[in-house]
Amino acid sequence: MKVWIPHTKGRDYLGELPDDTVVEVYRAGDSPPSDPASVDFWVPPFLAGGDVPRILREFSGLKVVQLLSAGAEVWVGKVPDGVVLCNAKGTHTGVTAEWTVGAILADMRRFADSVRDQDRHEWRKHSTPTVTNRRVLVVGAGDIGEHTARVLETLGAHVTRVARKAREGVHAIAELDELLPEADVVALTVPLTDQTRGMVDARFLSLMRDGSLLVNAARGPVVDTDALVAEGGRVRAFLDVTDPEPLPAGHPLWDVPGVTITPHIGGSTDDLLEREYIPVGDQIRRLHAGEPLRNTVLGDY
């Protein structure tokens, strides 16, 4: 069985593989290490996109596409019959929830103001909001959203969970019109689908309270960037993802008051490759043994 992975160091975390497994490294932009038609199991570069059907035509013997991200929007509906698409659900749950909670705390406690004061060598005390007793909407009640909600609840926040469909303890997205005006914080942890693309539009933002906080730990296109810019800082925002991404140097979003941007680093921690490749090794062993694969992507996931 032939496996292609995009990181040389990823080999170190795959664990013991079946004797007939050949692992080759294929990074974006490199020449293929061998014939793509001979590859059984492909781990594409993170968020590899482009013309996916054309790319996959070269992989005529492919059995599995294993993503290193939970987001699969680039691939859904474009993988040919007979090829199993798997995402990395759960791999980035803890660290992305950590970024989300950290973003909320950093904004509410105004850490950036203190950093700027330090740059000026100014000792300037100020009071700030607190997450305790604040009302937080977590929009996207999957692994990351639930993890985020539990942490915020331990800090005393009143958390309302929102998902595509209502279930016990979770509101439906269709209820957002009633929920948004009451929220102090709206945290986005939804996947990017046809239903969530552009979900945070001018109307959505207009329903948010003055000075409330929007946190995007999902995907950039979930938020209508032009609509957020047009708010002019009425709604604060902490964004790990943007649309477009990377955000061009001259883009007006950089200068909107109350907006803080990090460069898609929610999952970029020093244990990243270990977190990503240990489950990949397990998937390779499962495929070789004819066992069901984990995290198969079905429908619009």
From TrEMBL:
Pfam families associated with the record: 2-Hacid_dh_C
PROSITE patterns in UniProt: D_2_HYDROXYACID_DH_3
Source superkingdom: Bacteria
Family matches, as SUPFAM superfamilies: NAD(P)-binding Rossmann-fold domains
Keyword entries, A-Z: NAD, Oxidoreductase
D-isomer specific 2-hydroxyacid dehydrogenase NAD-binding domain sequence ranges: 102-266
InterPro entries, A to Z: D-isomer_DH_CS, D-isomer_DH_NAD-bd, NAD(P)-bd_dom_sf
Presence of the UniProt keyword Disulfide bond in the record: no
Record protein name field: 2-hydroxyacid dehydrogenase
Organism in which the protein naturally occurs: Salininema proteolyticum
Taxonomic lineage of the native organism: Bacteria, Bacillati, Actinomycetota, Actinomycetes, Glycomycetales
